[in-house]
Amino acid sequence: MIRILSSREALLGAVILVMIAGISLRFPGFIAPDNLAGVFNDTSPLMLLALGQMVVILTKCIDLSVAATLALCGMVAALLNGMGVPLPLVIAAAIGLGAVLGAINGILVWKLGIPPIVVTLGTMTIFRGIIFLISEGRWVNAHQMSDGFKGLPRGEFLGLPVMSWITIAVIAGFVVLIRQTALGRSFFAVGGNAHAAVYTGINVGRTQFIAFTISGALAGLVGYLWVARYAVAYVDIASGFELDVVAACVIGGIAIAGGYGTVAGAVLGALFLGVIKNALPVIGISPFWQMAISGSAIVLAVVLNARRGRVQGRLILKSAERA
């Protein structure tokens, strides 16, 4: 039992269950299956982006342009749909564009050696500017989108929206990627000790480039899902959402210094924020308290991460002294 509770993911899962139980005491309908499925579906974009951000952070980088990538890909998808482009091509274009935008970040970090935070802060602004240029500052509204474009993420299969199934499939894919592939192991190696990774034959820059490309492709997918679900596209869509994505990773135990993290942690970190954002308004708590609670959770997560790293260092030193 102690070993289970010492697991960051188990502890976070228990906290989420306690939160849901506490909220249900005041609002019993919150634990209804349909409502919980709705919370999962609402949190799906955050989970998808958190998974992409996770692989970037694992390699000791960060992607602050993820929300701007989402917005640009979503706007391009909406404009292509307005031109009559078939839906499969629209989705492929959104994912492909996201991958290209992520690759641009990766190349700048890899080939020019620019710090990731500087690169992605710059491209974040550039991507928002491109949205304004291609849309001329106008919104694309529901009546300008086809029914098929809007209907895909909202369609249901076995009682769950298609967007939730897409999220489940991506989570399963990431489990395989991280646990079963050489690329997944190289993410940890690069973030844990870049010098040692080089000696094992891993190309650090290329691994970081691939991580940014994966993050961008997921942002492109979420861009389509977001715009189609809410049936609107505009310049400032998902503005500030990149902070929620980073927060989900930090709360989920992804080491901001790289080299440590799990798929379950990223998903649970996103679910934690999703439950807060869905539940607190229902029970009448001010949005300002939501921000305070989210911020407190992030600070607590950082403290726990720091304590975990400190304990590991002491154990190594003690082992060395005994030897």
From TrEMBL:
Q: Where are the transmembrane segments?
A: 50-80, 87-108, 114-134, 155-178, 209-231, 243-276, 288-306
**A GO CC term attached to the entry:** plasma membrane
Q: Its topology with respect to the membrane?
A: Multi-pass membrane protein
What are the GO MF terms of this UniProt record?
Answer: transmembrane transporter activity
Q: Where in the cell is it found?
A: Cell membrane
Q: What is its main location?
A: membrane
Keywords linked to the UniProt accession: Cell membrane, Membrane, Transmembrane, Transmembrane helix
Q: Has UniProt tagged this entry with the keyword Transmembrane helix?
A: yes
Q: Which PANTHER family does the annotation name?
A: ABC TRANSPORTER PERMEASE PROTEIN YPHD-RELATED-RELATED, RIBOSE IMPORT PERMEASE PROTEIN RBSC
Q: What is this protein called?
A: Rhamnose ABC transporter membrane protein
Organism of this sequence: Roseicitreum antarcticum
Lineage here is: Bacteria, Pseudomonadati, Pseudomonadota, Alphaproteobacteria, Rhodobacterales
